[in-house]
Amino acid sequence: MRRAVFCGAMAIGLSASGTGIAQEAAGASSSSGKVVIAITNLRNTKGVIRACMTTNPNIFPRCREDPASHRTVVDAGENVTLTFDGVEPGRYSVALLHDENDNGKADRAFLGMMPKEGFGFSQDAPVRMGPPSFEDAAFDFAGGEAQLSIRMRYML
């Protein structure tokens, strides 16, 4: 059932996920590190990329529902890289939205069933009739620095 609400989940999950300021955990321990994400396959340089990273499989990809999630917004461009600092070791999944008109939500077409803007997930997790599961997008972070690459996808 969760897969059938893909567009709504992405709109809810990333619409309020950032205001241009990364939300990072306060008082990070010495085992914390950073996750650096290179974003590929952007179709244009309009708007922003909204990103969230969570350890909570019950709310993925709706990261705004997780106060412990890492969230940020960066300008779209030809070569986009974003960094989450203060990341504790754990199992994480990342969701991205290319908010081309920077209106804070995932715009949809065809009676609200199909995303008009780009999206991407860690592990390039497969998208079928809805967003991937947390496990399909999950990666293990042991601390230090992790380098990821996420390919943006567009349906329209």
Explain what the structure shows.
With 156 residues, the protein is mainly beta. The chain has one domain (2-151). 9% of the residues lie in helices and 37% in strands. It has 2 helices and 10 strands, in the order αββββββββαββ. It has helices at 6-15, 134-137, and strands at residues 33-40, 48-54, 70-75, 80-87, 90-99, 108-109, 114-115, 118-121, 139-141, 145-151. The strands form 3 sheets. Strands 2, 3, 5, 8 and 9 form a 5-stranded antiparallel sheet that branches. A 3-stranded mixed sheet has the order 4-1-10, with no helix packed on it. The chain has a two-stranded antiparallel sheet with strand order 6-7. The radius of gyration is 14 Å and the shape is globular. Mean pLDDT is 83; it is low at 1-13 and 15-27.
Quote the average pLDDT: 83
Structural class: mainly beta
Number of helices: 2
Strand content: 35-45%
Question: What proportion of the residues is helical, as a percent range?
Answer: under 10%
Query: Helix-strand pattern, N to C?
Result: HEEEEEEEEHEE
| Uncertain residue ranges | 1-13, 15-27
C-alpha Rg (nearest Å): 14 Å
How many distinct domains? 1
Distance between the termini: 23 Å
Global morphology: globular
* Total count of strands: 10
Largest sheet entry? 5 strands, antiparallel
Based on the model shown, name its key terms.
five-stranded antiparallel beta sheet; disordered N terminus; 10 strands; 156 residues; 2 helices; three-stranded mixed beta sheet; mainly beta; single chain; 9% helix
